[in-house]
Amino acid sequence: MSLAAYASDPAATRGRRHPEPPPPTRTEFQRDRDRIVHSTAFRRLVYKTQVFLNHEGDLFRTRLTHSIEVAQLARSIARPLGLNEDLVEAIALAHDLGHTPFGHAGQDALNECMAAHGGFEHNLQSLRVVDALEERYPEFDGLNLCFETREGILKHCSLANAHRLEQAEPGGVGRRFVERTQPSVEAQLCNLADEIAYNAHDIDDGVRSGLITLEQVAQVPQFGEHCARAQQEHPQLQGRRLLYEAIRRMLSAMVYDAIDATRERLAATRPDSADAARMLGPLVTFSGGLRAQAAELKHFLFHNLYRHPRVTETTGRAQDVVRELFARYLAQPGEMQAGFAARADTPRAVADYIAGMTDRYALREHERLTGKRLLAP
């Protein structure tokens, strides 16, 4: 399939930080995707929390299954828009590589611990993983990914960190945050696919957990309208089959809405290159009506699932694990693996070490160092 004029062309990539001969049988973005899939950080995602801690059930989403779902949705939208599917997949699979154990609760606790040392941003940590922390190749640290993949991985970045990135790599992935321009259309698409994925699968996991009910979420228009239509067409549907069918229809509606709304914006702005698209406002979007519905669904999930007392109790203890690990490693760096213990910047080494942990490894380490079991591994 031919690429649209505004798509990222692997033959015109801005390149890698360390030059390498081109791959003989793959595009540059295919090579990036393959390196990500074979990385240690990618394998760890299977034991990292999305919403529910890993030990709470075998069928809840993890960071790995979430990343795969984001990649699938992103490719489904990329193809009809003429975007580069390999780049989209690479960004989607790598976007959570820097996430801490215990999901956003772990991230918030680690950011609190690092407040006096530059803070902690999981998107910036994902970039650190692919730029420096992976140790696989003899010539360089990290995975040495293309600029376009790294740009997409860095979804958010504080202005202070953007200036630091720009100083270290002039014209690199930090510049767009300083100049307030956009990333590639493929990167914008991955951001929207991430939102589509977690809105849908958090409904599924929330109902499966028993913390929210199908009847509750059916009161939210974005989900409820699809649930009602499914029941109209299939009166015998109930329980999990009804839930799955309503989620399937909701996902399809979001995907097709994003395709149509983005096409309209691209037709109106007519970018004739990937760089021209970066100079415009956001191009990948929902229609106004669906955007409002998605915001209402987010509000429902925030108050009824993410802030459910059972979730906050568990995540509160998980945050204690992160805080106590940080304090112990900072005081006794030798308790970390040798490569981290030897680094001069001890606070950042501790943050890198904890961020790389799976849920269960963090729990085992915490019990080893403190003698306490705050959560069952």
TrEMBL record:
Protein's UniProt keywords contain Acetylation: no
Domain (HD) ranges: 63-199
SUPFAM superfamilies: HD-domain/PDEase-like
One example of a Gene Ontology biological process annotation: dGTP catabolic process
Keywords on record: Hydrolase
Record GO terms (molecular function): dGTPase activity
Entry-linked InterPro entries: dGTPase, dGTPase-like, dNTPase_2, HD/PDEase_dom, HD_domain, PHydrolase_assoc_dom
HAMAP family linked to this entry: dGTPase_type2 (MF_01212)
Entry's family note: Belongs to the dGTPase family. Type 2 subfamily.
Name the UniProt record assigns to this protein: Deoxyguanosinetriphosphate triphosphohydrolase-like protein
